[in-house]
TrEMBL record:
Keyword Oxidoreductase on entry: yes
PANTHER family found in the cross-reference section: ECTOINE DIOXYGENASE, PHYTANOYL-COA DIOXYGENASE DOMAIN CONTAINING 1
Keyword check for Oxidoreductase: yes
Domain of life: Bacteria
Protein's UniProt name: Phytanoyl-CoA dioxygenase (PhyH)
Obligatory cofactor(s): Fe(2+)
Alphabetic keyword roster: Dioxygenase, Oxidoreductase
Organism per entry: Algoriphagus hitonicola
Length: 292
């Protein structure tokens, strides 16, 4: 049994890799899409997966959710229910790319890598960490309003990006993403408990921010993704519908990001001393613009 973090390249044939510059062109975002991202703080509706890839990832998800998985110790975090309330279940994990081939290789999905580089200003991209967010039918919990970077200040400078991709259709009924357009310009707010009260962040906002707090729902078909800025306020409501809402998240940053802590950046990861570059086994370089 291997730690797949040792492999900084695709290890299966799940995602066909481009071989020429023209092969990459099919994955390029338009200037209009990039402008929308910078104005609003997000870009949604980007197809990352076909049906075969969706099914492979769902199979892998079912396997890694088992607390008895033989490689369970490789998770950075594993919460069968982060909320602690059996009526509001939120499965949340970090580190499954180390365990399942499909989740390892989705990091090298060319559609994801190209979009990430473009949205980071055509920069080289390094992997930060992955997440799973799964809400079962009928009693799936919420994810409170928050900004991702409020949990990531141990890495600087802020040049991060989040990609959320559904493995089920995400609708308002089963707790799809909700974004607050333009909130990426509000600056850094305090961090709430991720699976706590939905509106915990509101107490940390100015009156002007509260008046501009106008969330929009982001329903997405399975296999489609939304990218968002590290300061964009977002969250998702509970799932009381008859359908589950399973999703994975890929977090990245521009190459050159450094550690801002002398503590481990993730559970089980050796310390990268404060001021040193984020690199090595757990933070692989996944895209260089010159290579396309």
């Amino acid at each position: 049994m291997k730690d797949l973090a040792d492999f900084h390249y695709p290890i299966s044939d799940l995602f066909l890799q481009p071989k020429t510059a023209s092969d990459w062109d099919q994955f390029r975002l338009s200037n209009e899409q990039i402008d929308f991202f910078h104005e609003n703080g997000y870009l949604a509706g980007i197809q990352l997966l076909n049906e075969n890839q969706i099914q492979a990832l769902k199979k892998a998800l079912d396997e890694v959710m088992d607390p008895q998985h033989p490689l369970h110790h490789l998770f950075h975090e594993f919460h069968s229910n982060e909320s602690g309330d059996p009526n509001k279940v939120l499965f949340h994990s970090l580190g499954h790319w180390r365990i399942a081939e499909a989740f390892h290789d989705v990091i090298w999905n060319p559609a994801f890598r190209m979009a990430a580089s473009q949205l980071l200003g055509d920069r080289a991209v390094r992997f930060w960490h992955d997440q799973l967010f799964c809400k079962p039918a009928h009693h799936g919990g919420n994810v409170a309003w928050h900004q991702d970077y409020s949990y990531w200040t141990r890495t600087i400078e802020m040049q991060h990006l989040t990609c959320w991709c559904g493995l089920d259709d995400a609708t308002e009924e089963n707790g799809c993403l909700q974004y607050v357009p333009g909130s990426h310009s509000w600056g850094l707010l305090e961090k709430p408990a991720l699976a706590g009260e939905m509106d915990g962040l509101m107490a940390m906002m100015t009156e002007e921010q509260k008046s501009n707090f106008k969330p929009v729902a982001i329903p997405l078909k399975a296999g489609y993704a939304a990218f968002h800025h590290p300061l964009l306020v977002h969250g998702s409501f509970a799932n009381y519908s008859d359908r589950s809402r399973k999703a994975f998240v890929l977090n990245v940053f521009a190459d050159g990001t450094i550690s801002n802590s002398d503590e481990p950046l993730l559970e089980g990861v050796p310390v990268i001393p404060k001021g040193e570059k984020m690199q090595g086994k757990f933070f692989p370089l996944i895209f260089e613009p010159k290579n396309r």
